[in-house]
Every structure is written in structure tokens, then in C-alpha cells.
């Protein structure tokens, strides 16, 4: 497994922009939890987009599977974060749902990276 520097930098910048958008939406509706939404959005977008763009695996077939899963996870992360930022729900629910989803995502990416052959 290899991490490319320039695509990782692009992921950090894109995650920052999307986190600011979520912060703005959360600040319009709910002043108390806007920082939590911004930090959660930044971490989740960086992890899913980073595994989609910046990670390279030695095995091409496993890499394609990881890219497919990471693209689905990225879309789900966008929906979860912007949905919670726009409509807002209880913050413990947001933290638990996003935390469990990120743990599942990282576990799947780790298992794919440790596979030798598909």
C-alpha cells in the first residue's frame, strides 16, 4: 500500500471546503453544535476521499474493489454529513452514526489492503 502526497493534499483541501459548507449550514440552524459537525465532516470526508484518491495498492484487482467501496462510502458520508448539518438531529446520534460508519469503512479498507489475492 502506498499513499500519494499530492492527491492526499487535494483530499485535505476538498475536505476543508466541504467541512466549511457543513459548518455554514449547521450555523444557520443550530449554533451550539456547528464545530462538532465541521470537525466530523472534515475527518469523514478526508478518510473516505483519501482512500478513494490517495491510496494505491499493489494488486490492481483489490485496488479496484477498494476504489468502488470508497466511492460508495464517500457518497454516503456526504449524505450523512450534509443531512445532519441541514436538518439537524441530536448530536449523540450524529457522533454515533458517523463514528460507526467510519470504523466500518476503515475496517473494510484495512481488510482489502491486507489481502494478497482476490
Q: What is the H-and-E element order?
A: EHHEHH
Question: Could you give the order of strands across the largest sheet?
Answer: 1-2
Query: How helical, in percent, are the residues?
Result: over 70%
The structural class is mainly alpha
Task: Give me the number of helical elements.
Answer: 4
Multimerization state: single chain
End-to-end CA span: 15 Å
Number of strands: 2
Computed CA radius of gyration, to the nearest angstrom:
15 Å
Largest sheet: 2 strands, antiparallel
What is the mean predicted local confidence, pLDDT?
Answer: 87
Question: Could you tell me the strand content as a percent range?
Answer: under 5%
Outline = elongated
Descriptive account of the structure:
With 118 residues, the chain is mainly alpha-helical. 82% of the residues lie in helices and 3% in strands. It has helices at residues 5-29, 34-53, 60-87, 91-114, and strands at 2-3, 55-56. Strands 1-2 form a two-stranded antiparallel sheet. Helix 1 (5-29) runs parallel beside helix 3, helix 2 runs antiparallel to helix 3 and helix 2 packs parallel to helix 4 (91-114).
Amino acid at each position: 500500500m502506498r499513499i500519494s502526497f499530492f492527491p492526499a493534499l487535494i483530499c485535505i483541501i476538498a475536505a476543508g471546503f466541504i467541512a466549511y459548507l457543513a459548518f455554514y449550514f449547521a450555523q444557520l440552524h443550530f449554533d451550539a453544535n456547528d464545530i462538532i459537525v465541521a470537525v466530523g465532516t472534515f475527518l469523514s470526508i478526508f478518510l473516505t476521499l483519501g482512500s478513494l484518491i490517495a491510496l494505491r495498492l499493489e494488486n490492481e484487482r483489490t485496488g479496484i474493489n477498494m476504489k468502488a467501496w470508497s466511492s460508495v462510502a464517500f457518497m454516503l458520508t456526504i449524505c450523512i454529513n450534509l443531512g445532519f448539518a441541514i436538518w439537524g438531529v441530536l448530536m449523540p446520534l450524529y457522533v454515533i452514526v458517523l463514528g460507526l460508519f467510519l470504523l466500518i469503512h476503515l475496517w473494510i479498507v484495512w481488510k482489502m489492503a491486507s489481502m494478497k489475492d482476490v
